[in-house]
Amino acid sequence: MLKRAKVRALALKKPVQLRLGDVQRLDLPDQSFDSVVSTFVFCSVPNPVLGLQEIRRVVKPGGRMYMLEHMRSEKPAVGKIMDLLNPLVVRIMGANINRRTVENVRLSGLEIVQVEDLAGGGIFKRIIACRPN
User: Fold this and answer.
1) I want to staple 127 with a disulfide (CB 3.0 to 4.6 A). Which of 64, 67, 70, 72 is the partner?
2) pLDDT given for residue 7 in this prediction
3) Which stretches of the chain score pLDDT less than 70?
């Protein structure tokens, strides 16, 4: 993905710094960013709360995090099926399908600003969170 991002940045003539890293241990100073964007990331992070705490650390007070994520269905029957299938899906694809990402955002100390259900009957959500001032 870094190669693709580099090609895209060059095509757009945008100066960017690209790095490979672990969201659970970011090699970045505290309060480095005004905002952070993630797309389908926290389903595959081993400790998603730790990763989100790192995001909270590197975002400036009042800074925002914009997320697009899939997560465990809030419908009891569908959620149980996702729990049952999760070990197989992790083995095949490496992604957890039963994460409770909205709850994990709260546990990290970020404040939820907005949660929007998208397609998939509540499985896909857009989440906006911020670092408290």
Assistant:
1) 67
2) 92
3) none
